[in-house]
Amino acid sequence: YLNVNFSNRIVVCLHDCQEKSFPYFFDKKQLRYRSINLKNTLKYSWRIQVSSYFVKKELSNQRFFDEKMTN
């Protein structure tokens, strides 16, 4: 996760977003942590590179910044 607001263009690689599809595998603290960090990462990154089409589809289904995603 990107946890700092940089002023430069930052490309972030997201490997998964398991908490969106399988929230029952995470406790409340982990869900909150992941949610906050994912939102900040998506907000402050310039582009997002995903590790697979599946991850891209999952993020798209969650309505996360489609225009930033590349694969």
Q: What's the short story on this structure?
A:
The protein is α/β, with parallel strands linked by helices and 71 residues long. 42% of the residues lie in helices and 14% in strands.
The rough form would be described as flat
What proportion of the residues form beta strands (DSSP E)?
Answer: 5-15%
Radius of gyration over C-alpha positions, nearest whole angstrom: 12 Å
Secondary-structure-based class equals alpha/beta
The average pLDDT score comes to: 78
Count the DSSP helices: 3
The major pleated sheet works out as:
3 strands, parallel
Instruction: Output the strand order for the largest sheet.
Output: 1-2-3
- Ranges with pLDDT <50 over ≥5 residues? none
- Helical proportion, percent range: 40-55%
What sequence of helices (H) and strands (E) makes up the elements? EHHEHE
> Could you give the distance between the termini?
17 Å
The strand count comes to 3
Structure report:
With 71 residues, the protein is of the alpha/beta class. It is built from 3 helices and 3 strands; from the N terminus they run E-H-H-E-H-E. It has helices spanning 18-21, 28-44, 53-61; strands spanning 11-14, 47-50, 69-70. A 3-stranded parallel β-sheet has the order 1-2-3. Strand 2 (47-50), helix 3 and strand 3 form a beta-alpha-beta unit. The longest helix is centred in the middle third of the chain and has 17 residues, at 28-44. It is flat.
Features:
about 70 residues, alpha/beta, 3-stranded parallel beta sheet, 3 helices, about 15% strand
Secondary structure layout:
Elements: E1 11-14, H1 18-21, H2 28-44, E2 47-50, H3 53-61, E3 69-70
Parallel strand pairs: 1-2, 2-3
